[in-house]
Each structure stands twice: as C-alpha cells, then as structure tokens.
Amino acid sequence: MKIARATAHYVLLCLCSVVILFPVAYALLMSLMDGAAILSGRLWPEKGTLVNYEAAFQQAPLGRYLWNSFFVAFMITVGRLIVSSLAAFAFVFLRFPGRDRWFYVCIATMLVPWEATVIPNFLTIQALGWTNHYAGLIVPFWAMAFGIFLLRQQFKQIPHELYEAAQLSGMGNFRFFCRVVLPLSKTSLVTLAVYSFLDAWNMYLWPLLVTNDDRVRTVQIGLKQLQTQEIASSWGVVMAAAVIAMLPTLLLLFAGQKQLRKGLMQGAIQ
Amino acid sequence: MVFTKMDYDGIEKEERGEKRMAFLELVEVTKSYGGKKSAVENVNVAIESGEFFVLVGPSGCGKSTILRLIAGLEPLTSGYVLIDGQVANDWPPHARRLSMVFQNYALYPHLTVEQNMRIVLQAQKVPKEEQVKRCMEAAELLGLTDVLHRKPRELSGGQRQRVALGRAIVAQTPLCLMDEPLSNLDAKLRAKMRSELRRLQRQLGMTVIYVTHDQTEAMTMADRMMILHDGRPQQIGSPLDVYNSPDNTFVASFIGTPPMNLAEAHVLNHSLLLQNERPIRLRRRSLPKAERVIVGLRPEHIEPAESGEESMAVKVSHVEWLGNETLVTFELAKNLYWTARWNGQWRIRLGEVVPLTFDEQDFLFFDASGKRIGAPSIKREEVWVHQ
Amino acid sequence: MNERVSTVPSPAPWSVRTKREARQAAIKSWLEGMVYLCPSLLLFGVFLFYPLGRTMYLSVFHTDYQGHPTEFVGLAHFVALLQDASFWHSLKATVLFAALTVPTTVAVSFGLALLAHETRKGIGIFRTIFASTMGMSVGVASVIWMFMYNPAIGIINRLVSAIGGTPVSWLLDQDTALYAVAAATIWMNIGLTFLLLLAGLQNIDPSLYESARIAGMSYWRQLWTVTVPLLSPTLFFVTTVSLIQALQTFGQIDFLTKGGPVEATNVFVYAIYREAFVNYQFGSASAQALVLFLIIAIVTFLQFRFAERKVHYQ
C-alpha cells in the first residue's frame, strides 16, 4: 500500500514536471536545430548544432544586452539594499520625533500602483537628460517600500539589548549598523537581493520607454527586437537567444533558492 | 514500604496462578534512522490495562521515539508491538484506538475549544448528540465549561493543556499517550496538574503511557516506570523498586534528588577504601567478591553522628537550607564531594569539620562497569508473550 | 553568612536641563534619523509622490506632444473615457484576464505545493523544477510561448493536428488571444506562487497532522480541516498580490499581441501605454492611469473587507 502511494506520488510529480519544464525544454531543443530542421517540423534535433547561438550573438548585440541587464539589475539591487537597510535601521533603532509617521508614509507608497506615476516619471527622466542612460534605468528604483518593510521585520528580531550594549560601550550608530545589524540579517538581505535582482532583470515597460538604442538596451527589450527582426525566418536563433537570456536568472534562482525559501518562510510568519 | 492493593494487584494474581494478559507489549523493539546508531534498541515491556506507565530519561534518550512507535506515527526497524495480544506493527494509528496529548498541545488555532474536542469524534462519525454529551462531560471534568467557545490563543497555558487532555478524554480510547504534557507549564501549575492528571486517570480507568524527562514527575505519578538512557532501557519497575534497588549507576544517580552519592572503592578484607583515601570499616555487611567496585549511598542515609558514636569526620564545603531539611556537601576525598540530607535546620559553617555516620546496610554496590552487584530485593516480573 | 556588599558609586545628581538643551537634543536625534531616511524619502518624493500629484494635475489638462499642459479641461477626460467603448472593452479584457489567471495560478501552485511538501527521496529536484518559472523573465517567456503558439510550426498546433483537431491562430484569433496570453502568464507566475505556498505549508506545525492521523482523519479531511485554514493567511496574501499584479500586466501583451487582435487583449496598462507613448495624449492617459489606481484600490479594499474575514490568523 505504501509503495503504491509512493509510486503514484512520483508519477504525479513527474507529470507535473514535464508540463512545467516543457516550454524551456522545447526552446532548448529548437535552439540546437538549424532553420531547415525547425521548418520540417521535427521535435528532436538530428544533429545538434550551435549555429544558432553564434548567429544570436552576431545578428544582435546579445552580449551587450546581457551586460546591460546585468549591470542595471546589479546596481538596482545594491542601491536598494543600501537605501532600504538604512531606512529600516532608522525605523527600528533610532528614536526621533515623527518616526512612526514617516514609516506609515513609506508603507503608503506600496499602495500606489506604478502606472499612476510612469508618465510624469518618464517626463522627469527626459528633463534630466537621463534617457538612453544607465542612470535613468537605475535610480528611480532604489527606494522600495517592500524592502524597507522586509528589513524592518528582520531588524526587529535583533535583541534590543545588543543595541544598548553597543551604546554603553560607545559604539556609534553607523558602526553598530555595519558591524552588528547587517551581518545578523544575512538571510533577509540575501532574500531581498535575489528578489530585487530578478525583479529588476524582469522589467519591461520602463526600459522600453527610456531606452532607444542598443547601447543601453536590456535583454528583455533586446529579445523583442531580435524577434521582430527574425520573425518566421530564424526561430532557432531567437530560441538560442532566449536560452542564453534565461541562464543568469535560473542560476541565481538555483543558487539563492535555499535562502529565498528561508526568507520567504520568515516573511510568511509575519 | 507500604503496599497498596492497586500497585501489587498483578503480583497477587500471579500468586494465585492466573496468567496476566498484557494490554500493550513491546518485544525487542528497535528503531534506527538510516543506518545510523539506533535511536532505541531492544525495548521489552508489558504494560497492564489501567496502568500509569512512565517512560523517563534525559533528553535524547529515545522516550518520545518509543511513544511515536507505539502510536504508529513511525514504523519500527525491528521487533513487535502487540496490542491485546495481536501483532500491530502495520496497523495505522487510528486502528490502534489510542489518543495522544502532545507537548505543544497540537490545538487547532482556528477552532474553538469545543470544536477542538469534537473534531476527533467527527472523524470517527460519532452521532452528534453523543459528541456534545461527551464534550460537556469532559469540559466539566476539566473545568473548561466557561471557555468552550474561545479559541486557543485566548487561553492560558494551563487551560490549553486541559483542552489537549479533553481531546484525549472524549475519544474514550482505552490507551492514552502523553508526550511531556506538563513541560510547558510553570512549576506550581505543574505540581497541581500532576495530581489532577493522576486522579483523572484513576477515575476514567485509562491506560496511560507518559513520557517525561523529570524524574520527580515519574516518581510521583507512575505505577511503574522505564528508565531510558541512549535508547536503551535501563530498568523497569515501580518507583520505590527503582529507588531502592537500582540496577546500575545510571538509574541510581538519575532517580532521586539530590542524586545518589557514588564513589570508586577498593575492596579489602574487612573494609572499603573509597577513592584511595577514605577507609571504611565494615562489620555487619558481607563484601562483594570483586576487587574494585563503585559504592552508592543515598544522601538521606548519611546522618550527623551523636557524640560517642562511631563516625567519619569530613570538612563541609557547601550548605543549603531548604527550611525543612539541610543539604550538606562535604569533601569525601580529593575532588570527590558527597551530599548528605539532614532533617531540620542545622547550624553549620563552611569549612567546619563534622562527624557523620551511616548504616552499612544502606550501601549499594556496583561493579566497575556500573552494573549492580548483589541480588535485587524484588522478584523480577515475568512477561508472557502471546504468539 | 558572609556577604560581600559591593560599593557602587551612586550616580551623579541629574543635571537640570534647560529647555534649550532639551530641544537641541531632540533636534539632533531628529537630524540623525533623517539622515538615514533621507535617501528613501528623497527618492519617494521625486519618483513617487511628485509624479502621483503630477498625474492628477495632467489628467485635468490637455497636453502637447512634449507633455506640457496647455488647456484646463476639468473632468472632460474622465467623462470622455466613460463614454468611450474602447475603455469599457479594455476594462472587460482586464477583468477577464485577471479572472482567468489569478484563480488558476493559485490553484495550480497550491496543488504543486501539496505534492512537493512531502519528504521523499529527491523531492528537492522537483521543488527546484516547480520554482523554476520564477527565473523566466517576461521577454524569455513571451518569446518562447510566441514560438509555441506559431500557427505554422509551433508545437501547440502540431499537437492539435496530431490528435485530429484544426490548428488555430492562437494569438491572431479574436476569440482565443486572451486565453493564449493568460496561459502563458499562468505558467510564468507559477514559480513564485509555488514557493510562497510551499513556505506557508512548511510553517504548519506537524503535530497538528499527527493528531489528525491518530484521530483517524482521511487525507482529504485533513486537507480541509488542517491545511486550508492554517494556510489561509498565505493564500490570502498570494491571491491579493496576484490580483494586483494581474491588473498591471503589460510585458506579455506588448510582446505577444500588442493589444490586438481588434483590442481583444487591450488590457488597461497597455491602453495607457498606447495613449501616452504612441498617441502622445498624456492628459487622457493620465486620467486613465488614475482610473486604474482607483480600481486597484477598490479591489484591494474589497479583498480585505470580505476575504480577510475568512483568514485564520494565529
């Protein structure tokens, strides 16, 4: 009976995995086939070829797109971590008049959907001359209410006695922040970093608006460009580009999975 | 020692020549996780119907594991669990007709007290009127009638514990398992609940298997207990049997507060040399036939010597006054401290030299490996295993 | 008994602080706090509060192609919207899209989380696989699904033909386009939803299940009595977030259908994008953006008002 149950379970798991993985596997297979093979309607490559991958890098500056996405996502993540952790620290450890009111203001920003601000933001960026510039892609996203909220929850779990002991020994606030608070909050910081990076990598509308040339174009828009160019002729190339573009995020997800799950569990408790 | 009819019912029956039918038996039960050292090994015991049986031992000794094996929450690695004479290894928990009280109570936070108690009965498809009836009876028994409509988060620790107990009572199963149910309560409440639990158990006639790490709980509540260490049973017996006649040094030092005093000793012709320093002349007692032994003596058997009595002089290193008794710690030999327990309030200063005396008959002898030397004073009970 | 009485020097008499000193100290601590908050508040101010205000301002003006307001029109944009068939069409598409994607994503992810919750050999691999769509960015997912939906050589039509059906132009057919995009969206969102629900499941105290097993509850009974109520905070959170996300969908639409065919997939955000950045009607686009804001606020409020009652918090 137990064996029957276990087998059924595994069968279900495998079926679901096949369905979930299918699009990715399909893209991978197609990317290894040349144009003729794809048009002929085969599913499995007769002889795998990397010609699509070469073409992907040649026909579009795929490398440049990837680098742009990476740079932008990285800078957004780092900026967010710094900005959010500073704010969260102030909300948890520092006492100053109006502290709680400012916190509610920050939380209120979570209620505002991004579309309500996109038009003026675009005009602002244009006015600042930041279009087609990394700054325009990065700076607006450094303040993140969700990040402040998450880190505040984490910082609150640090025993207040540590802070009092630090004060008694004459340690300054900033030193305490760097030497004690940040190291103790590694899980949340990693969770926030992984989530931010994936989120930033995934941005679509904003890069579409503020970038116009390939110098700063991110890979999401780059893929769109590539697809419109290659439509109906070299799907293999497009699939190859897609496979390359998914590698960084998959790797990150794989590496950060355990931390992400731990962080989400802590978050779920709140 | 006072024998109560209930404790020794079984032995009386035995003397009459009747066979005892054990309610629950464990035969050579072993559990190991993935090829590592076993969590429990070679557990053998027969538990009687209506008995309050305690599994006691330090943390990690395997007592909770045994409970979970009995409950059927985990499979055995080898051995048998017998319920009413039938091999129950493969029976799912529900088929074993038992109820369980968990250490953290396992109350459903989204249900009221009444719903928490009735949910067990709903699963068993007990008719609604019967459900309500049993629920009300249990609530009255436990003093929960006023909080039936509240949710667990609104209750105190003691109340939650009673709800968990209530769930076990309404199930009306013949066997009830309890996994350290009192460990989350404060000391005073714990003491009160100990006697409450025992009273309830007697009143309802439930067979209870109770797990605890607190030897006081075991001593005060058990009809019989099993002491466990590192997954291996050390001794099975009634509290007084175990107290007076421990099978090894672990049991001797685990049961009893303050713990039994132990010392290594050389056996000479008519005396013992404790820890190479302290000689003790023995007159009435016959010495064990080994050269090196471990000697044990309970603190309450060490008394202050009257003037003129034969005595041993020791230097006091620590004194504790409890109001009704005084605990005197003294240096028996270099780096070996023993404790004596004297009735009343004694004026003793640190560093004072006091004369002590004791009765030789109170000595217990263990061999170098810790096993008891000398016949135990209570006859071993036999276990009939039904094939 | 010996007791050592340690002599601790008594604290210096509390100096009398003047009002000025007290105020100075308060200002100092306020300044310090603000230094830490400054970056966040500045960024919120520039990129969130100011734009919000500006959107409201622009929505009552006609604007030129540079986005500068030219003529005050009051609520004219809003009135025009309510009378525009295209607006209602867009609203319908958005609502339908949300209704398609949110319940399905949550249900499928819940099922996967249940499957992946048990401890079995190799379960870690399956958990990674189920979570993998979180690593699929919108461009990657869109381009793959676009290929799969390709009428001529896409795999979906191939399978349909293989079982004897007629191939469909999934993304170009008015009746199927929205469903096609919804399917792709569901696939994309499963990863994160699955992880959140799995985390919620693993937070449930296992002794509650053991207690249920001992009482003899069947698997489905346990699911209904233990799992769902205790998972309800996470389910509520996931549903709310998914709903808000669904109302803000843009990337896949731009990629796969560009709002077509015949506006079948012209969801709200896409309509705003088109109005503002293709037609350069910043005024009316701002009005539309505010309407979207209002809708999201109402939906979230309704969620909290009605659905949250059923959530069992501990």
Automatic annotation (TrEMBL), chain A:
Where do the TM regions start and end?
Answer: 70-94, 101-122, 134-151, 176-198, 232-255
Query: Topology in the membrane?
Result: Multi-pass membrane protein
* Keyword Transmembrane found: yes
Q: Which keywords label this protein?
A: Cell membrane, Membrane, Transmembrane, Transmembrane helix, Transport
Determine if Transcription regulation is one of this entry's keywords.
no
The cellular location(s) given in this protein's UniProt record come to:
Cell membrane
* InterPro entries, alphabetized: MetI-like (IPR000515), MetI-like_sf (IPR035906)
Q: What is this protein called?
A: Carbohydrate ABC transporter permease
Automatic annotation (TrEMBL), chain B:
GO terms for biological process, alphabetical? carbohydrate transport
Q: Which CDD domains match?
A: ABC_MalK_N
Q: Which InterPro entries would you find in this protein's record?
A: AAA+_ATPase, ABC_transporter-like_ATP-bd, ABC_transporter-like_CS, ABC_transpr_MalK-like, ABC_transpr_MalK/UgpC-like, Mo/tungstate-bd_C_term_dom, NA-bd_OB-fold, P-loop_NTPase
SMART domains membership: AAA (SM00382)
A Gene Ontology term for the protein's cellular component: ATP-binding cassette (ABC) transporter complex, substrate-binding subunit-containing
Its keywords, alphabetically, are: ATP-binding, Cell membrane, Membrane, Nucleotide-binding, Translocase, Transport
Q: Specify the ABC transporter domain's residue ranges.
A: 24-255
Task: Identify this protein by name.
Answer: ABC transporter
Origin species, per record, is Geobacillus kaustophilus GBlys
TrEMBL record, chain C:
Chain ranges passing through the membrane: 29-50, 95-116, 128-148, 177-201, 222-247, 285-304
In Swiss-Prot or TrEMBL terms, this protein is called Sugar ABC transporter permease
Entry keywords, A to Z: Cell membrane, Membrane, Transmembrane, Transmembrane helix, Transport
This protein's species is Geobacillus thermodenitrificans
Q: Which family does it belong to?
A: Belongs to the binding-protein-dependent transport system permease family.
According to its record, how does it sit in the membrane? Answer: Multi-pass membrane protein
| InterPro entries per record | ABC_transporter_permease, MetI-like, MetI-like_sf
**Cross-referenced CDD domains:** TM_PBP2
Report the Pfam families cross-referenced here: BPD_transp_1
